[in-house]
Fold these 2 entries.
Entry 1:
Amino acid sequence: MQLYNKLSAKERETLLEQAGEERLTLSFYQYAKIGNPHLFRNHLFIAWHEQDVLGRIYVAHEGINAQLSVPAKRFKEFKEFLDGIYFLKNVRLNIAIEQDLKSFLKLKVKVRDKIVADGLNDETFDVTNKGIHVDASKFNELIEDPNVVLVDMRNHYESEIGHFKNAVTPDVDTFRDSLDIIEEDLKDHKEDKKLVMYCTGGIRCEKASAYYKHKGFKNVFQLEGGIIEYARQVENQGLENKFIGKNFVFDHRRGERITEDVISHCHQCGEPCDTHTNCANEACHLLFIQCPKCEAAMENCCSEECIEIIHLPEEEQKRLRQGIPNSNKIFKKGRSEKLKFKK
Ligand SMILES: [Zn+2]
Ligand SMILES: [Zn+2]
């Protein structure tokens, strides 16, 4: 029985192109008690491998967090499979607006300690004591209330390219940091202000809202399904769209355009731009915003040093990388002294 991938990403890409079939990009999550995450992981892998599902899925004792692409013609089968798992029956599926055949190239189902690396000690508070969930229409109404503080629960590189009008966007690298900053900012208003929060797909707010209630906030609201679901409801119900720019997403597209506004700048020349890229130097891989002109001039690199490195023979590059831990740990995501226009 096959429990892991055998094809490389390149091989998958070719296969997908040849098959040319329509796929749906979607995500879902659920906090639930999972007794044996490894067994559950194998159950998912076997079923989804058979259904030609691709994506990145995390399973933990606390639940599941999944980002997937499903062949459109097998969606019904996929849905029936989910409904057959008691804690996933009728789970809300966030379906991406822009569909992309190649949003994922492999099926990866991983067992983790947590479904979101949130840095929180769950023993200290009740994660099921969540905030009030609001849909797009209610959310639009709520954020016009002068007594509301609207908080973006995402990281700096996400809110930089798009956020709700008038939202507080903490300049943080991690979810854990934003929790503390917001609590400090609002410490005198735990009872009188309404705290309204949002994130990409809603999962971070599930934890954050419970955390703030535990910390004494009396009026906590969260955007159900996050920006992804908001954008869908706004479109389907013809509501006013109060989000500006792009929604950062974690597949290879890196951003889903919500409005035509470009609110950020190329980190190298300062021109308006909201396209994220990863530095072409394998040993760097810095996530940053780069315009097409700089992409050409800098060969998709973040710095002169990285350009020099990518011109070295592959063997030499490999030798340089040896002993250097995972590049994500060298740079804080999306920050580097070398980027002139990164605030
Ligand atoms: Zn530029
Ligand atoms: Zn670089």
Entry 2:
Amino acid sequence: MKLITASFETMTGLPEFIGYTFIFLFGAAVGSFLNVVIHRVPNEESIVFPNSACPKCGKSIKPYDNIPILSWLILRGKCRNCNNTISPRYPAVEFLTALLFTLVYWQIGFSAFLPVGLIFAATMIALIFIDAENMILPNVITYPLLVFALLVRLIYPLIFGASFFSDFKIFPLIYLQEYPVWFVSLFGAILGGLIGGGSLWLVGEVWKRLRGVDAMGLGDVKMMFGVGALLGWQLTLLSIFLGAFSGAIIGIFLISRQKDKDMQTQIPFGIFLGIGSIISLLFGEQLVKWYLSMFVA
Ligand SMILES: [Zn+2]
């Protein structure tokens, strides 16, 4: 989403790289919190209490050993107490979140939509890693995502107008411009949700009738309902396309390496939907524009 952007420099008088440094460090700290979410939410544990502890020996981790990315490097991936290895997933999530926050800031800029982009990106990272590890997309994340998306689509247009949402510029919202902006926005959100969640649900149903197996989890449907509500129908279709494309490539690779060809290979599709949604948020409008330009001479 390319948006009207005020530069950090003109807003604060500080050089631009300060903004980038700050958002990177902020991302690393949020990544540290996402590690807790990824580890505890599937087990239905509290994400607030108790403090972080070593998953092997249970000893609580001191604040100076809990610095994102750095602590893992300094301790060489080992617990200070029991010397057991600590999964590289922890610094990986922290670094990925930091990198992604920097990309979101680069694309969205220092604007009112920045917090929305960051929350969306963080939510996708949590869902991707939970799906990879547990093959589930928990309701405690997908439902709040949908509520968040609907609130943003209701409140943002009332304060800032339509400029933050790309679906205002395309069919069918473009024909509804005589109606109140909040109504058009919510209409776009519900349409996006139905297209995102509905299309996945449909694919799952058809597959179930044809092959008699549950290919699509309801978690994927709920997740794409939330993504669709926030991004609108066009960017959501792009997310699903990008997800299916990358998922198919990885899927073919996994099946080709499988010895027993009859075995059902289960692929956590939420991972790829999450990746597709992040690419859509960052570069979706440019990708759609580029794609459409190929058909106009
Ligand atoms: Zn330990």
